Amino acid sequence: MKKPDRAYREQTPNHHAILRLYRYLAGFALLLAGIAILPHSVKAQEGMTFDELAPKLTDAFNSDMISDLRAKLPAPGSYKIWGYDAGDFSGDGYPDCAISIQIPGEGGKRLHVYFFVDDEGVMKNVGTETRTYLQLPIEVGVNINDGVCSVVAKKDDKRWEIISYYYRFGEFMVADSFARDFRNPIAVERTRDFLHMEGTDRFYNFDSDSNYLLSNYLILPCYRRGNLPYVNAQAVVSDTSSRFVVSGSYYWTGAQDCSFSTQTAYDDDFLYFLVRVTDDRVITYAKSPTGNDFVDIWLDAALTHRIATERPDSSMVFRTRADSNLFHFTIDLGNFLDKKPHIKLASSQQFNDDQYAAMRLMKSVSRKTDAGYLVKVRIPFSVLGLDGAPVENDIASLGCTVVVHDVDNGYRPEEATEIATSAFDPKNPTSYGELKLIPRDKRYGVEHNIYLDDIIERIGDVGF
Q1: Which label site among 210, 218, 247, 420 has the fewest CB atoms less than 10 Å from its CB?
Q2: pTM (predicted TM-score)
């Protein structure tokens, strides 16, 4: 089947983060003005029929493909179209399509967004999402740009969200999400990038726009051991930029000097870490422990209100000081020969007898690699004061930051570099990243109920 002869620029999802931010802000500005962020006009408070929409699609699709769209929507005359856009969110360089419809008489203020991709000249419906609106259907908008399809929705008078999707290899996945909650006096913005597993939380004054708290970090997806659910699941998290070089940036010459990836897993009793480090000089000969390379794992075992709590007057108390929920594991690499690796544990709390007993079950393994080294770590949940993995039917979160300590000269430990998975201050729990414990039947960042629950859960964590 012949496709329309038109030039089209393929773009990589989330490749231009700044452009994505501008799109977010522009989308909100338009919606706040009462205008849907649509590339084409729709008669106010009327919607369109498919016959009215079809001529507007001819620049992107041929007649057979337009017929495919018609056939895969509900029966003609049973719905009104309120939004649409054409563009590539499947990564093949050809335009795809998103259409939002309202079904009169269905009950409730709802719009259904249909996502279609060009599958070898046939329009394939790869997903359908439902969004509610408060007053007008134009409060829900669709927009395809920068390789993703975004849906903007007004959740209530003080809350908006944008969720962006993309399609790859048979999977309809979430690229990122953005939620803004206009609470007074404190407003909240949360961004989740599911492609690169990054998170940003911003708490700020609604009137002055000044920040109370701004944190940026990597999110570690933690699946049940031996149960990576599908081929596209993001399981390994890495970052080779300078953003999270938290100490000694002067001595860091780039990713080849030191960088790392982290993979985690869990079972009923243990939490597992695999850290692969790229290091051009692995130092294990220094007499002083700080003169050698080593790895730190910081865990925050607070399961609720990890960031802040809300006072009766609606003000917030941010958890910016160390407390008894913080655990610091230092993994000595050994020398990859006769000296074995070992784990040192520190915490601000007093350990009980059960925790002391569980410490004997901690285990670490290290191995030299061509690119640097790797460490494997096993940590019992009971060491953290938890009765096994704190996950049942919902995703559970622990604060977590992994720090790689790199020295290039064992006789000059003061010239060390520390690279972390967050903009990290060990004494400030709000600077920790996140470890997401994912139940067996869940997939983080793929299905709508998972990532949306994450946003709601995180806002709930601070007392909203």
Answers
A1: 210
A2: 0.82
